[in-house]
Amino acid sequence: MPDSPPQDTRTSDRPIRRSRRKEARPGELLAAALDLFVEKGFAATRVEEVAQRAGVSKGTLFLYFPSKLELFKAVVRENISGRFAEWNDKFDRFEGNTPDMLRYCLFGWWERIGSTQASGIPKLMMSEAQNFPELASFYQHEVMQPGNTLIKRILQRGMDRGEFRPMDVSYGVYLVLAPMLFLALWKHSLNTCCDDHAQLDPHRYLSAQLDMLMHGFCQPTTLPTPTLEHPLP
Amino acid sequence: MPDSPPQDTRTSDRPIRRSRRKEARPGELLAAALDLFVEKGFAATRVEEVAQRAGVSKGTLFLYFPSKLELFKAVVRENISGRFAEWNDKFDRFEGNTPDMLRYCLFGWWERIGSTQASGIPKLMMSEAQNFPELASFYQHEVMQPGNTLIKRILQRGMDRGEFRPMDVSYGVYLVLAPMLFLALWKHSLNTCCDDHAQLDPHRYLSAQLDMLMHGFCQPTTLPTPTLEHPLP
Amino acid sequence: MPDSPPQDTRTSDRPIRRSRRKEARPGELLAAALDLFVEKGFAATRVEEVAQRAGVSKGTLFLYFPSKLELFKAVVRENISGRFAEWNDKFDRFEGNTPDMLRYCLFGWWERIGSTQASGIPKLMMSEAQNFPELASFYQHEVMQPGNTLIKRILQRGMDRGEFRPMDVSYGVYLVLAPMLFLALWKHSLNTCCDDHAQLDPHRYLSAQLDMLMHGFCQPTTLPTPTLEHPLP
Amino acid sequence: MPDSPPQDTRTSDRPIRRSRRKEARPGELLAAALDLFVEKGFAATRVEEVAQRAGVSKGTLFLYFPSKLELFKAVVRENISGRFAEWNDKFDRFEGNTPDMLRYCLFGWWERIGSTQASGIPKLMMSEAQNFPELASFYQHEVMQPGNTLIKRILQRGMDRGEFRPMDVSYGVYLVLAPMLFLALWKHSLNTCCDDHAQLDPHRYLSAQLDMLMHGFCQPTTLPTPTLEHPLP
DNA sequence: CATGAATGAGTGTTCATTCAT
DNA sequence: CATGAATGAACACTCATTCAT
To answer: Cα dist. B44→A50, B12, B37, B161 in Å?
Structure first.
């Protein structure tokens, strides 16, 4: 998410439409593609529908993205991988205790990704990875590895500072990912599958899961005060 | 742990030659279909490949199943919905305390479904439900509803017997489903996505999750002794 | 060009239509494909048109040939490469003098290939080889090499028997190919380009070219009596 | 052998700036187009690539040539048809004997066209003519007819002067064209098809073919001394 | 009962041509 | 003059489903 490019300054004397076009087209296509990929999956999404929803023709789409696969990669970069730089930065500058850091991380994820359409991408990958090896390896390198590394760094920090008990971080990662994954799936699949749409309050769910995690992770001395006495209403 | 296979009892009263034919073909087809649906998903599985793997021709498949969709339904019935009768039975006859019942339920699920190919079906539904509404409503009625009902009955039993605190069962259901879902996804997608194949021991994972659940569900007095002091190695 | 396969003997008691179908479909497709490839070239020929002309649907074509490229290869094998075995055989058993052999070779080529649609294939390759490398290497291995080898064997035989002067056979090959190529091009392109359709009698043209060749190739002693005093009417 | 380039004389009387612009762009485009048309054929050449190679945008190309087809026509005019005026002139002023004239004609063709990229155009027409009727008729009128007429005039001159035997000129034309065509094809296709790149020396090939032709065309009295005793090394 | 040949609608991608800037 | 963004028709190939044998 770089700021708007500095060209804008010398753009000022040019007609606005032209310069905005240059930004607008791919953006609209990426948004349409995100929606459709999340709704239907990679294979079932037709490029023509993406183009239509973005208000352009099929040919125009291929002007900006050389293939459906590259379009998908661009969607992932725009919505997920692009965020890791910022998050790693935040990690480096964070000064509080590690349980707070973990809490901050999960809630931050919810704000930026989990609560948006982007949370549909992990769901999508679950099923399409097998059928599109190139997609799988792309996602592995650009999302899973940086994400896992970030979580592992948090867990390691906790252990280094004596806040967390010694643990196998590559296992701990799963325990952190599980609630995120569940929320994403719930948002994009479960609630449309289940007829009684029990309202699952994401913040409360995350809080409860964090509390549970802390019981497993933390030394008794640093166990944070549970925000909620018990996670069930 | 699983009972002796129930087929034997049912088989005795059927004429042997005819009935075995009728079972044999569909049985092989269902097995092949389960494998392929789980591996590739519903849409990406080609009926011809199912037929080939079962050793019959494409035409023969359509002799037994009028469409790809019906084939899928049959797979689900064979592997999941067919089990609910037995489980509801067990529930009715269960005499122990409810935490044990929940534990028994999760581990039983793991033995019969979670550890088998059948656990790929929920993963599959996550993505295909949106594209095949008839599939979604079928799965909703034949799997989600009976499953949720069963879990709700357990939770309700716990509350009725004073073992569980009062709770919103339609929310509690999610907390029970979450670890099952996570294990299924881990088995069928995550471990193939993640490069460092951290060994996730399903039994230990289920135990740990159960302990966490119990902290949330149980009255302090009935809180079961945690099997593991802490869930991390 | 193998004989009809021996299965035919046990076919006798089967309904004729079925067994003939098995032969008929690919045959009709190959014929239609030959016509269209020769008329329009490889790239410009649409598989759907091939199918239509053969009286089947597009899908059926792909039932017999996995791709347009393989269809083309099959056309070439059916019409050209398949003949080389027979010709090499004839060469081995030929007992006359070499000038006669060469004459026999050129006229034989005209009867079997030159005068048929198949003579359009070399023309086609001239232009498509650059754009379809796989096609080029296929043609190189299955047509050019065997063909050139056959001609070189003839030239070598002539030299070995003292009928031909010593020569560089890889150059001599071109002199033999040139009139064949010209006839093929004339048949498939030139006569449609030229408005005055001067009738070029292929037999007379070949005879004249052969006489010219013999003046170059032969020892004065074996120079065959020119069939025509001079090649021009 | 070629004269000093005639452009210089024509250029002197034109205003420099404007005309150079007008020539420069189309000139680069025509050169790029010739290369690509010859390499890939008419249909397979993309106008965008032509523009790129000429260093201009696709839109600019269409500024100078209203369509791909007109671009091709311009290429042909620039490289082939434009030469006929000069050649007819030379014919009118030629004073030597007709066999020499024919020899001069063939070698002149080789210098100006055969040895350049332009010799790829006849090859190209062989295949594309069928698919682009407008192209075929253009080529027919602007190249084939003038070319054939020129050759016919030479043959007729030979007959009129008693140097050549009486012949059907519309057939004789083919005998003159054949070696030119073969050389052009060899240059642009055959040598890239054949694995053993036998070096074909164009001058020697033309000489040999001319000698052969003379045996057919000439009255014994005017039969020119063969330049080479026999055409094979 | 079993086969496998036949179908045809559907999809990702290319490219000549147009036109607003 | 020059650009390059936009278009949309075209095409190879796939696959669930049917049906004659």
So the answer is: 21, 39, 8, 48
